[in-house]
Structures
1.
Amino acid sequence: MGRASVTLAVFLLLMICGNNVMAASPRINYLLYCSGCHRPTGEGKPPNVPTLHGELGRMMSVHQMRGYLARVPGSNNAPISDAELTAVLNWILQEFNANTLPEGFKKLSEDEVSAARANLLADPNKFRETYWKAYDFMTLVERTGKE
Ligand code: HEC
């Protein structure tokens, strides 16, 4: 490693680990712990890694799906505190889903995220289908009267 890259590495380490005054922002935590799979833009790599744009906002109209955000393995296992994960999830909702959040949406609370995080989802897709796709389907039937 050349001197410049060592300096850069030390600088980055200081920025990331720093002291409390420089606690990582939700955006930085997103870049560090989520963007490897979901990409810096949040678009993911469908169909393997879902996008974090749009649909998460719509999901927030279903109570179970609030906790879902902290129960999927990628969130659940991230080496950050519950408070930091709460901030990252609220950041994602605000940053990538502002247009689709339900009216009167309340941000996730740290208590809510801690409780949800205690229940890692072994099968996220099944849970999603049960509480979200099913809901999606039912509202469609209600709206159109067709199955
Ligand atoms: C190792 C790759 C990886 C990392 C890192 C990762 N995720 Fe994921 N994420 C996935 C995959 C794959 C899925 C699809 C569900 C599953 O199989 O876990 C997913 C699903 C999700 C979902 C549900 C999306 C939906 O439409 O159902 C959310 C929310 C989410 N991740 C948030 C995060 C957050 C927040 C972080 C960082 C703290 C993160 N992920 C880190 C791979 C990852």
Note: The two ends are 62 Å apart (CA to CA).
2.
Amino acid sequence: MRRCALPGSCPAGFRILVSALPALSACAPVCRAADGVSSVLFRPAMRRADSSPRQEERRARSPAGLAPLSCGGQQGAISGGATMQNTSHAVMAQRVEPADSPDDFPTPPWATRALMEHVIPGETRAMTCLEPACGAGHMARVLREYFAEVRAADAHDYGFGEVRDFVVHPVEVGQVDWVITNPPFRLAEEFVSRSLQVARRGVAILARTVFLESAGRYHGIFRERPPARFAQFVERVPMVKGRLDAKATTATGYAWFVWLKEHDGPPRLQWIPPCRRALERPGDYPAGPDRRYRSSAS
Ligand SMILES: C[S@@+](CC[C@H](N)C(=O)[O-])C[C@H]1O[C@@H](n2cnc3c(N)ncnc32)[C@H](O)[C@@H]1O
């Protein structure tokens, strides 16, 4: 089987209706289509001349809620008529949450310690920090190990921190030294902009590695305000909806994106070395399920 002819995009602009066939490998049918073998569901993606990449992404969802995935040029597997889940990065990196979802995926504590130990090590003991999307507090509690004061808030009430929508009601300009969070992915760009206004010294955002991509984010953030550091986890950081799970796995890559107010120069790329085992602590994974959010913020 040949690989897709165009790296990073489907041959002939094909897209696949994945939720119509839940276990369907996203790329294999298209790759097969390129070989003239495929008979599975696909259709050409129509690009509208007046579309921004984000508008097009929204339009691409049909009224029936079918979420198209574009082909990343990697092979999946179909054998003997049965389909196997494609665990390629290109496919797994596209977690689709409903537009009104709080995107409640708590951060395993070791991943926050990795930021503090490997990416921004130094003296923060006398500094203040804001975690503006704290959820049940799994990141904020770790930050308290490193900062003099950590403020925590979330648009939803998890019984931890203040209930406050960071996009609608960000904290006052220059109120804290650092803003550190794992924001909802669909609002991550807004969170970066708000955080850069609020923080005096730096901003650290944990996001999927693919946050680095897209023309929209290039124009919205990276062209004018590139991060000082891009720190890629070499280990996976498994995140599960609504709880921490020490045994969870994922095919999605994560990185810390760090802006330093005093930084002047090109971004620095670094790899966060294997550190999960060294940075996990007893009690990091509560036995019961997390308290889920109780109500929306007004
Ligand atoms: C990926 S979870 C991360 C939770 C926590 N930061 C952590 O790392 O464990 C995203 C969080 O953002 C919160 N959230 C969603 N929209 C928000 C908004 N507009 N303002 C503040 N928090 C928001 C969700 O309720 C959820 O707790």
Note: The chain has two domains: 11-92, 109-279.
3.
Amino acid sequence: MASEQCEHGDVELLGTEKGERGVNKYFRCRKCGAVLVLSEEGVLYEVPAAREQLGSR
Ligand SMILES: [Zn+2]
């Protein structure tokens, strides 16, 4: 089964960005390539990898 959910256990910090409500931290999962956004309020957003094709291996 290839559709197993990734737990994003191995992420790298891409950088931070100041928003109106605080600082957002951007991470990328090394396993599946999904981008994770952690807001200052502690809310985690996930951006699916399929949408963000960087073309780098
Ligand atoms: Zn992942």
Note: The chain has a mean pLDDT of 83.
4.
Amino acid sequence: MYESFYGLTGRPFQLSPDPSYFYGSREHKRAYAYLEYGLHQGEGFIVITGEVGAGKTLLVRNLLDHLNPDQVVAAHVVSTQLDADDLLRAVAASLGLPARGVDKGSLLAELERFLQRLASENRRALLVVDEAQNLTLRAVEELRMLSNFQMGSRALLQSFLIGQPELRRILQSPGMQQFRQRVIASYHLGPLDLAETQGYIQHRLTHAGWAGDPELEEDAYKAIFAFTEGVPRRINLLCNRLLLAGFLAEQHVLGTTDVEGVAKEIREELGGSGRPDDIAEIGERVREYHTDPKRTGEAPRGWNGSSEGSDPDGQSRDRIGAGASELSARVSRLEKAVTHLLELLRRRSG
Ligand SMILES: Nc1ncnc2c1ncn2[C@@H]1O[C@H](COP(=O)(O)OP(=O)(O)O)[C@@H](O)[C@H]1O
Ligand SMILES: [Mg+2]
């Protein structure tokens, strides 16, 4: 919506991870180096953790984009509470093997044959499990079993486990010693610092055709950093809103007051800390929590970061109410934007 107003050619702060926007911050470069090291080793597990929105999925996409398919065949699985058998099926399916209606023994035999064939062609298999904090202990154990497949002394499969910080806790639990022995490296992907937050924003803008409009004042970057704590996803959400607000007010210079205005608006919509990542997520999570009976053990995180496990019903209904009022606020902002757009068009053609 604001793209043409600012002369941009792309969407600088879209949420879906697009590798062409990749910004090599110190943390992202380091995490990437771990993955490359892992690839080089050709066996065992590499574990990468990071907060929601830290850039894990983009990092992996970036790596997969750079793999030579003549050398490495990648299976990319996103775990949504997968148990051992589901995981095996998901792995087989993502390698293009038939997985439905096949019993576990045949599935394993099929997988092993496939991996051996790859090895005999001098190719390797890489399994990437994203959102791995959702794996059950049995599923992790199943992964360990898969890592036992060998041809001679050579491992047939190596795996990257990518997940939220809970993943570490799962892997540190007492039953996981054997698994831990197979982990060749692990890394926690941290947030950006202030300078990188500025670099990140400018990098994404430039990739979307930015030629300095809008101009963000020095202090605006500080305010963005303070509000988002350098988490890329939060930065995207906040900047998206900031540019929309700038467009609606026909502003070409944006400062601290503008950032704080947007941040305040976000806070008022939801109350609490109103961190940008929570805004997109909370409605979704609460709905999932209440419709999925398996999730009763784990309460969703509220916008103020607290767990609502002690009174899920009462509080969550309030959250759904908050989701609805957020939606209506969004609709009215959108209405305002459309009216504004029509007005601009009318003025230009008249
Ligand atoms: N290094 C980076 N360069 C450019 N964009 C990034 C970077 N890290 C994260 N992002 C962006 O931030 C958002 C969240 O990243 P994502 O990979 O989905 O996070 P995670 O998987 O850790 O939750 C996405 O829009 C992604 O494109
Ligand atoms: Mg992700």
Note: DSSP finds 13 helices and nine strands in the chain.
